[in-house]
Fold this sequence. Notes:
Blueprint: E1 11-14, H1 20-30, H2 37-45, E2 49-55, E3 58-68, E4 71-79, H3 88-102, E5 107-112, H4 117-125, E6 129-140, E7 143-153
Parallel strand pairs: 4-5
Antiparallel strand pairs: 1-2, 2-3, 3-4, 5-7, 6-7
Amino acid sequence: MNALAVAPAPLLRPMHEGDLDAVMEVERRAYPFPWTRGIFQDCLRAGYSGRVLELDGCLAGYAMLSIAADEAHVLNVCVDPHRQSHGLGRRLLRELVWLARQRDAVRVFLEVRPSNHPAIALYHSEGFNEIGRRPRYYPAENGREDALVMAMELVDADIATMPPL
């Protein structure tokens, strides 16, 4: 094998119910309080936009987005713990934001655990800002953990043509 060979690019595609065995394996490895298979099934059956990211023929991550009226909600972004810190979460997040734009959403919301510093840093770097807090939102080892609510306003690509404020 050539030492300069380039690794194949990750494949990003829509999530299907047939992906759920692999999704659940990653979900259980990644979270102490994972979603259930039924939650994923309900999201897909409701028409939410699910995406999976495959790397070397294996599911490396996935994401789920709901869109209602002109608002999108990032419900889940997960990268297999064995594949984290290689830009895959960023790739999934950008795909969800792109999908939101395509469906004419004007803002995107998400919740994140305050203890999830890498995710918060990712969301900030992609343009999300903290707008609030949901008390006792997530299950935790010792009761419940708050959620930070973050949002991003989606603006047209040619923002340079906007008039000054």
